[in-house]
Amino acid sequence: MKKRLSILVIFLGLGAMAIGQNPGEQEVLSHLQDGGTEGKIRLEADSLLVVNYYKLLTASAKVKGVPGYRIRIFSESGLGAKEKQQRIRARFLTEFPEIDAYNRYDEPYFKVYVGDCRTRSEALKLYDQIKKEFPNPILVEDNINMR
Question: What pLDDT, in 10s, does the model give residues 81-93?
Fold first, then answer.
């Protein structure tokens, strides 16, 4: 099973490169199953591999951003939490205008996350800057926006 999966991944990678040369063509797996580039490649794949491939594509399309780090500077629930969340975000953007800040509601908590850091070391530098003005920040892994 692992051997089949490895072969499928290799052929999909080669197919993606071939299709990448000609934008606007059909999806990689169906392209390879239909005969590949000019009939040179024909892929026979187990139906479970094909189903899992499409599940992975669907799940990947739903995920926005890339893996990285953000810093949570606020998390609170209860009366007035939403207004406090908005005030904290506004204060942060005033003090650090070059850094993005994001409001998020994870029931029952209103939270504020800041930064779009690709690496942990980049996030720790930001953490050191922020903790002076916003006590008790928390470094968290998140999907971030690319700059």
Answer: 999 999 999 999 9
